[in-house]
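Researcher: Next sequence.
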Amino acid sequence: MGVNLKSFCSDEEFRSYLNRPWTRGEYTYASDGHILIRVAALAEYGDADRAPDATRIAVVPDGELTPIVWADFPKPPATIECEECEGAGSKAPCGCHCHQCICNSCRGEGTIQPPQFAALRGGQFNARFLRLVRMAGPVSTLSAVGRPAYFKGDGFEIWLSQRTEIEGEEIFQAETEVVPA
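Model: Next structure:
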């Protein structure tokens, strides 16, 4: 299989059940809470006790899917100092970086990458997630207006949450053209 499922997983400590793919029934899933990918069941991944019931999210919409012709994406923005911890990586005055005082915004790094947003078929998305969709392989979609947006590729399906309010952020077009059905 060509899709790296682990790239769709979370690295957050408080949602550790999303830190690896899991298999339920006839599918294997991977998610970080914003994006969900589903492939045919893979034996190397077992069930995760606390993983969400992905069948509630993984609903295939009705309608004709059309291929996405991706535009060139601009480079991701350079990292900047985390405002929450002022670059310290820790919110505690001791600066110990233990799991209880580590900065949630930068996860102890002291820097963050500002979000970058992209428009796609009527929806607006964090470009980081659209890059994952794009790297998975060629995809088709209906429109991206639904919640969550649905993408179908060869051997995989992806559901992606949208941004509902993007104020003052530059948004680039993620698609060069819409291929007629």
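Model: Helices lie at 127-136. The chain has a mean pLDDT of 83.
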